[in-house]
What does this fold into?
Amino acid sequence: MEKTILIGGAAGLGSAVTSHLIGKILCSLGYYVFDYRDYPSLIKGGNNFNVLRIADQPVYSHKQKYDIILALDQGTINLHKKDLKKGGLIFGNKETGPIVQKLQGPQILANDVLIGMFFKHFGVGLKIILAAVEKEFGSKSDLIKKAVEEGYQLVETKEKLKKGQLVKYFISGNEGISIGSIAAGMDLHLAYPMTPASPVLTFLAKRQLENNILVFQPENEIAVVNMALGASFTGAKVMVGTSGGGFALMTEAISLSGMADLPLVIYLAQRTGPSTGVPTHTAQGDLKFALNAGHGEFAKIVVAPGDAKEAIIRTQEAFYLSCKYRTPAIVLGDKHLGESNYTFDELEKSKLAAVSSPVNRASSYEHNALGHTVEDIASVIKGHERRIKKIALVEKEFLKFNPVSVYGPPAGEAGKGSNLIISYGSTKGAIIDALSSLKGFRFLQISYLKPFPKEAVRREIKKSRKVILIENSATGALADVIAEQTGIIIKNKILKYDGRPFISDDIIKNIKKVDED
Amino acid sequence: MKPEELGTKEINTWCPGCPNFSILQAVKEALSNLANQGKLNIENVAMVTGIGCHAKIYDYLNLKGFYGIHGRTLPIAFGVKLGNPGLTVIGFGGDGDTYAEGMEHFIHNCRYNADLTMLVHNNQVFSLTTGQFTPTTEKGFKDGSSPLGLAEKPINPLVLAIEAGASFVARGFALDVPHLGELITQAVMHKGFSFIDILQPCIVYHKYSLPYFNKNVYKLENHDVTDFASALTRAREWDYSYEKDVKIPVGIFYKKERPVFESQWPQLKGAWSTIQRKINWQNVTKEFK
Ligand SMILES: Cc1ncc(C[n+]2csc(CCOP(=O)(O)OP(=O)(O)O)c2C)c(N)n1
Ligand code: SF4
It folds into this structure.
């Protein structure tokens, strides 16, 4: 069983909340749901939409042909009708309008009418839906429940969804980062709002008292990161969050973290650049920027989770390594990872404990063991060697954390084995979903970009016939990184730079093209 | 304890005769006095500095310390306070540091009113980079980066601080060590953001300041420090210019306690580093099910 639903409407009409609620109900029934969110940078108007892909098997990406369109306005129908499957259904204003009028409620009630219609169509019991609505909206849910019931009466059950087994977890990448930071024992989260990182700020802010953490929004990103280092000096564990422009403002202090030996975790959520770019859309254009941010030479960690579940563990690892080696760690995500919802049977955390401690002296200058400023030749050399040694230590330890993962059938004989797809970060979902349709292909996911797992990457490439890089960018920076680290040049690249994430159909089509060459 | 005990063995590289020596002395006297009176535990004092001549004080004071980066004294100091509200935090900045590179932090820290002290060594030039103008340099100033003469009028940091909500605003004169020491004592004891703009004539790049100050500085008297309007009027008496002789008041211009930043966060109780955390994973994840 597999269905793809589009829910859309002008900004402010509620498509994100509604799709989340539908997704959550389906997860409670045991289904796997992937929820993709697409919205322009405006507050009212435009067309926001979510795509929910629902299946009884794990799914990690969305599709672009819809079984049902739930339309909150006519614009949604006009825009997306072309992608409706043959025989697909549209529920929209025609159905919801009269009910909203009858209930004399606000326009937003159309969402609830659609929820009722949707679940009735699939024969899900009304009680289940009303309970979920009450849980979500609490005391103000009476009118909402009425609207759901009215919607429910409106249509017949045409298909029957059988109940799955396990209740599932429905979680976004940003939520994964957030609870990963809690699992790591974070004390402070500081951030200046910037899409697509700000959901972490608001998620943690809302839950700060129950988790005994402090969440604060300072005057700008420069303040954010310097405050973080001030707190880190006292032994507090701090994560800051931002996207490209804000990260650019932080780079001076990244170098300070490296020089002053102060732990610092940065969540960098990439969006479509350069500059302000396409703020609410996705991209992987900042890989080299993340790797090279901060002047001077010092140890740095850059780790890129591939889904919401990995986001938890990788954030913990970032804290662990940053605190142990007292150097900056970047968790590199993007809009697609951060704002998409994934479904899992379980949510695990790692057993790693991040330990920091207060220090008496910290300095941005080259300094001796007492923290005092030095300029003489021997001390300058000593300072550099101390920092370079850290790089070597991190390079040894990170190998414990599965810096690469390989999916698909084993390669077989060296040089004659199967073909290899290489990627990192949020492209994982679409690639995994495409893999079963790609005979003779393996997928190498690189999760640590710094330190770089060069041996493992070289080994996998050597075992493969064709090697193809997939990246949500215009240049395919990971190929350059691989060339620098392994000396191997990757010629085949499948790139996407329209601000939208890959879907598995894109990947299958493009891989077939490359494979025929 | 004696003031000297707060010193270090590091070689001092300030120019001989630089008024920064006097600021260093005033700080040592103020802190050792407070320690002797049992009002302060020296172990609990953390200094934060920017980058510039002023910031070298980091190497000359035997305190916990963070030698920060240019312009960022205040956010770092604020972060130290967030990380361990039990520390007595003192920031040292230059006028370039605080009013040029870090102006946004200055304004916002006046608003935040965290319990910390900011001492600005105001020499009206970027000294460590060899004498370029800053936001408090007087109009007409000529140097390597302004050979045609500076066209803008200087800002008045006292007026800015009072307007932006600082709860303790003072001006000191580096060469009057006893008076400056007293101001620093009061600033450290004040609960809230306390700011002292310290006239620190650079004897290399702003030579005419020293005789001008010696002639014109006077101590504020008969001034109600809780009177906002009067504080502004007194702060405006001198506009950081040198065109003609104008009397320059030093002392406390404004002082009025209000709730400190830290008091608004129930979870901000002590040093985070002392917290033993036990994560209840079931609780953290249940909302996703
Ligand atoms: C981001 C940055 N920009 C520029 C500098 C160069 N710099 C070092 S000290 C300084 C000026 C210091 O002036 P001020 O803060 O007034 O201190 P003073 O030397 O006068 O005590 C500058 C611009 C720097 N270190 N960092
Ligand atoms: S250049 Fe000026 S401020 Fe710097 S040490 Fe010399 S006299 Fe002091």
User: Anything to note?
Assistant: Residues B 50-54, 70, 94-97, 121, 123, 125-129, 134 surround thiamine diphosphate (ligand 1) (CB under 6 Å). Chain A touches chain B through 59 residues (CB under 8 Å).
